[in-house]
Amino acid sequence: MNWQTLTQTLFGNDHTIHADDNFLHGHATFDGEQLTVIGTTNHAPIGVALALAQASAVLRTLKEHPGQPILLLIDTQGQQLRRRDELLGIHRAMAHLGCCIDLARRRHHRVIGLIYDQALSGGFITSGLIADACYALPEAEIRVMRLPAMARVTKLPEERLAELSRDNPVFAPGVENYVAMGGVKALWQGDLQAALRDALAHAPTTDERAADGAARGGRRLAADVTARVLAA
User: Fold this and answer.
1) What domains can you pick out in the chain, each with its CATH number?
2) Are 65 and 34 contacting, i.e. CB atoms less than 8 angstroms apart?
3) Does the pLDDT of residue 172 top 80, yes or no?
4) Helix (H, G, I), strand (E, B), or coil: what is residue 22?
């Protein structure tokens, strides 16, 4: 689903969301409440400029619309693999974006992430995974890296990784596996307005991903290890 169809489905004509190249931003009215909408499109690579543009939009919302919910629309191929961005400090720009989203949550803005197309690597980590809760459409594609790339990094045969991925979601790409691990709270299917309404009404105030992963069998040890560390 493209962003135009998605926003029309969610908000009808009650929005000012538009695209500046790969950067989505604007406002929408939903159930009589104003939302800030920030995101990316066209499988955007997240470079310094795009990370800072999103961060600026978050900070502008904190300043001009205190407490207003923020919806992050995610479609990214990951961080921009370009020498210029590396020299300009892409890691710092992406960390800044993550810090701005975290600050919004601390200032009592409900922050909801929605992967509507593609979410890869660092471009996803510094946006949707820092939201109060991240959701996805069933047809979305989520992964850190493909199995051939994972095989090169881990030095394990691709066939072995494919075998592991059948039983362990950590090794497997795909939206269902991220639901199992707790990284994605749930899939939005059917009535998308009802799904957004429910997400806004029940946005968690604490990080529930490890607990969700344990309950769903996708991350069996994270919640227990976290509890033991906190109790030490």
Assistant:
1) 3-204 (3.90.226.10)
2) yes
3) no
4) coil
Greatest mean pLDDT among 79-83, 127-131, 132-136, 213-217: 132-136
73 residue type, one letter: L
Report angle CA 171, 98, 186 to the nearest 5 degrees: 50
Q: pTM for the complete prediction?
A: 0.90
CB 70 within 8 A of CB 104: yes
DSSP 8-state code for residue 49? H
pLDDT at position 142: 87
Q: Cα Rg for the chain, rounded, in angstroms?
A: 18
Per-residue burial over 74-104, b = 16 or more CB atoms within 10 Å of its CB, e = otherwise: bbbbbbbeeeebeeeebeebbebbbebbeeb
d(CA 14, CA 3): 15
Which stretches of 89-221 are DSSP H helices? 90-106, 121-125, 147-154, 158-165, 175-181, 192-201, 209-216
pLDDT at 171: 66
